[in-house]
Design goal:
By secondary structure, the protein is an alpha/beta fold. It has a domain of about 200 residues: Alpha/Beta hydrolase fold, catalytic domain (Rossmann fold), CATH 3.40.50. Helix content is about 45%, strand content about 15%. The protein has twelve helices and eight strands.
Length: about 290
């Protein structure tokens, strides 16, 4: 049997247990409303995975600390990698961890930068079962106060969306890099329901539920909406073969930026792009030039 290329499979499909998908499909058949409530719960549940070998050095060499994020009353694990006063904040994506951008951190270290990253609530070694994008953003704001200031910030996927939002509302960085970042929250919920094999009606109910629960249209958190308020030089990196987030999002985000630079790659997908030497060289050059 041919081996499946995991880079061609959406990360949600890879990580969400089959039993969860079966329950969702069953509920979808009998009641889209019940399926939407079940789906909303799963949407907020990151699924952890074993730390890859390539991330071990950063995990072992970092000064790690558990801190409480006061505004959300949740704990995160912070990784302080290197000792330079020139600091770069790294923010992982959904179901990632603070060492997910380890190859980028290694190259930044060689260029004289140290990095600060974190396991977001319910991610990596951080406690909890569920979390959301505002938790990422509140963690970013607190770390700027306690571990900053930061020269630049680099985010992958949801981490990129969180940084765009945080930068729009005052994160004091000189440069920003977002990788594989989505533009539309509505599109994210549609992709989620498709990957979970739920109906689009259920997907619309999930989005409506979140809007009501959080008291605003969550599309306000979309990448392009946030990008319209970002004035610092920003590098937008995306791969044409990204199966998790279509690369059209990168064009939509870049169009909204005051100082946006677009880097489109091929054959790297949503995750392999984080370890590609040519991509990392361009990111580090952008941050350090």
């Amino acid at each position: 049997m041919a081996k499946i290329d995991k880079n061609l499979v959406p990360v949600q499909t890879l990580l969400i247990p089959k039993s969860v998908m079966y329950v969702g499909k069953f509920l979808n058949l009998i009641s889209p409303f019940l399926a939407s409530r079940f789906g909303a719960r799963i949407f907020l549940t990151p699924f952890k995975y074993k730390r890859p070998e390539r991330e071990r050095n950063m995990a072992e060499e970092s000064l790690k600390e558990k801190i409480k994020i006061e505004n959300i009353n949740r704990e995160v694990i912070v990784y302080n990698f290197g000792n330079s006063n020139k600091k770069v904040l790294l923010v992982h994506g959904w179901s990632g961890s603070g060492t997910q951008l380890s190859k980028i951190a290694d190259q930044l270290l060689e260029k004289g930068f140290s990095t600060v990253s974190f396991d977001a609530p319910a991610h990596g070694e951080a406690p909890g079962k569920r979390t959301n994008m505002p938790h990422f953003i509140e963690t970013i704001y607190q770390l700027e106060k306690t571990h900053g200031p930061f020269e630049s910030a680099i985010g992958h996927s949801l981490g990129g969306m969180s940084l765009l939002r945080a930068t729009k509302f005052g994160l004091g960085i000189k440069k920003l890099v977002v990788i594989g970042t989505a533009n539309s929250i509505t599109k994210i919920t549609k992709d989620f329901t498709r990957n979970l094999q739920l109906s689009q009606k259920t997907g619309r109910l999930i989005k409506l539920y979140f809007d009501k629960h959080y008291g605003e249209d969550l599309d306000n958190y979309s990448g392009g909406v946030s990008a319209a308020g970002v004035t610092v030089p920003t590098l937008v990196v995306h791969d044409k073969d990204d199966i998790d987030v279509h690369y059209s999002a990168a064009h939509e985000i870049t169009e909204k930026l005051a100082q946006g630079t677009l880097l489109i790659t091929e054959k790297l997908g949503h995750r392999k792009i984080l370890g590609n030497k040519d991509v990392i060289d361009k990111i580090v050059h952008f941050v350090s030039e």
